[in-house]
Amino acid sequence: MSAEGAPPAGADLDVCARVEELADTWRARAARAERERTLPKETVEELLGSGLLSLAAPTCHGGPGGGWPTLAEAARRAARACPSTGWTIGVVGGHAALAGRLSPEAAGLLFASGARQVFCTATAPVDGRITRVPGGFEVDGRWRFCSAVDHANWIVLNGWYEPASTPERVLVPLRADQVRVEDGWHVSGMSATGSKDIGVDAVFVAESLVTPFDACFGERWRSADYLGAVPYLHYMNSVVIGPLMGCAEGAFDHYVASLRPRGGGRAKALDQPLVQDGLAESAAELACARHLYDAVCGTLHSAGVGRRALTPQEGAVIGRDRAYLARLCVRAVQRLVQLTGTAAHHEASDLARFWRDLQMMAAHRDVSRPLNFPAYAAQVIESADTATADTATADPGAPRRDDSLPAVARAHR
């Protein structure tokens, strides 16, 4: 399964090879990482030393300025061995591009020690407050879900500041020694990401270091690298599909390995039609998920290379495809778990660990069906209304083609 299909267009093959060289080492540490609820220091040192956490760092700050498919594919391949390591490469590694998109003063400060650092984010305030004060902002309170914070050099907080006549969302960078790590990360899956809470005690941050959310994620065409130039939100929200896809593929590989007899000879599974049927259906679902993965990679990379913003239709399709990819992966692996029976739920089972991790990834808001499907449907319906209004005033004798809809919508009308 892992060997099926080529890397997506735009992925750096040398980076892929770098990941494969380290994959067995991460696979051997995966169970330990889950028990310790954080990545081992050795793994983080390997990620930093190999440049896998700085793939998205801008060239102006010493990074390679890589494209989005390279980041996603590196995360995918790592996740086949250890889903939490894949998550750290893709999601946490993607924050290097975010750090480069902060205000010039903030970006210069964060990259003063070079690109090979761990940039974490905290986007879910519990009681966190960002308050405007003379000369800047004061940050106080708690934020949740700060992946890899045990190894962080910098944490970028996300929140709305007060008081403000018009509320504004901002990004505030803090050094790791300015926050307090609070261990609330006791979860059933993705334990090794160490996505713990952080507390901040009345820290002042100068105004020049605080970046409005829209300024960070909007157009910045002067950047030499497209991840620092094009509107970034769809790129950041889509990176989860790399580790998610790899996690499902890793689960499939473990299941197939469990069917092979240890002493050689003929596999018993060859005499079990139910197993054969389930295996083939799960493989087909993962093949379909890979087509969606390639499509998302292709759209994002094409827009990035072309230095253009995604159209609303493209953004809606990407959201739909992320959510459906997650659904296909979950269904495929759930079937394998059911075929395995009780053994698949043993705490030490590799398949059980992948299943736990996959369910946690699939719960992420960026692959949420309730969030992404309605947005896609609204875009299709609104586009159809616009097309109808346009054709009402057109030459009735002219041939009609509804180009305002995405191709998939036109195909189903």
UniProtKB/TrEMBL annotation:
Gene3D superfamilies: Acyl-CoA dehydrogenase/oxidase, N-terminal domain, Butyryl-CoA Dehydrogenase, subunit A, domain 2, Butyryl-CoA Dehydrogenase, subunit A, domain 3
Stretches for region Disordered: 387-413
GO cellular component: cytoplasm
Organism from which the protein derives: Streptomyces boncukensis
Acyl-CoA dehydrogenase C-terminal domain residues: 243-367
Claim: Transcription is one of the keywords in the record: no
A GO molecular-function annotation: flavin adenine dinucleotide binding
Top-level taxonomic group: Bacteria
Pfam family of the protein (one): Acyl-CoA_dh_2
Protein name: Acyl-CoA dehydrogenase
Top-level taxonomy: Bacteria, Bacillati, Actinomycetota, Actinomycetes, Kitasatosporales
Domain spans labelled Acyl-CoA dehydrogenase/oxidase N-terminal: 25-93
GO biological process: fatty acid beta-oxidation using acyl-CoA dehydrogenase
Family of the protein in this entry: Belongs to the HpaH/HsaA monooxygenase family.
Keyword annotations from UniProtKB, A to Z: Oxidoreductase
